[in-house]
Design brief:
With about 130 residues, the protein is α+β, with helices and mostly antiparallel strands. The protein has a single domain, classed as 60s Ribosomal Protein L30, Chain: A, CATH 3.30.1330.40. It has 2 helices and 6 strands; from the N terminus they run E-E-E-H-E-H-E-E. The strands form 2 sheets. A 4-stranded mixed sheet has the order 3-6-4-5. The protein has a two-stranded antiparallel ribbon with strand order 1-2. Helix 2 links the parallel strand 4 and strand 5. It starts with a strand and ends with a strand.
Length: about 130
């Protein structure tokens, strides 16, 4: 059986091009991407604002995907954790700049703080991707 990803958006639910209400995966291997922050390869933060950190977090996710021959098209679920007081719209705009318009099932959670080693971290994104078996 070959891999098939189907985005589920029932007519009875709100539709948004940025996300899917559900994602059905048939076949394939699963990749779990651990929480990515806005850290550059040298370990420093890409910036002290949500936009720069979100852009870098997505660049980091793309690197993980690329390392196994995948892309954002393979991502079926994202959890986005944003520190309280940040503009979700700013984060969304930054994400689209790097990620593009690839819908997936997404949960956005507003948190008091993140468990990163740097107290200035404002966003963390983890994901699940499915690639050909």
């Amino acid at each position: 059986m070959s891999m098939k990803i189907t985005h589920i958006n029932p007519d009875t639910l709100h539709k948004n091009p940025a996300f899917s209400q559900g994602v059905l995966v048939e076949g394939g291997k699963t990749l779990y991407i651990g929480g990515q922050n806005g850290f550059l390869p040298d370990g420093s933060l890409a910036g002290n604002d949500l936009a720069s950190q979100t852009e870098q977090a997505y660049k980091n996710m793309l690197e993980v995907l690329k390392s196994v021959g995948a892309s954002q098209e393979n991502v079926v679920k994202q959890n986005i954790y944003v520190v309280k007081g940040q503009s979700i719209q700013e984060g969304f705009a930054a994400a689209q700049k790097v990620w593009g318009n690839f819908p997936t099932a997404i949960s956005v959670l507003i948190v008091e703080s993140l468990g990163a080693l740097d107290a200035g971290v404002l966003v963390e994104i983890d994901a699940i991707a499915v690639i050909e078996a």
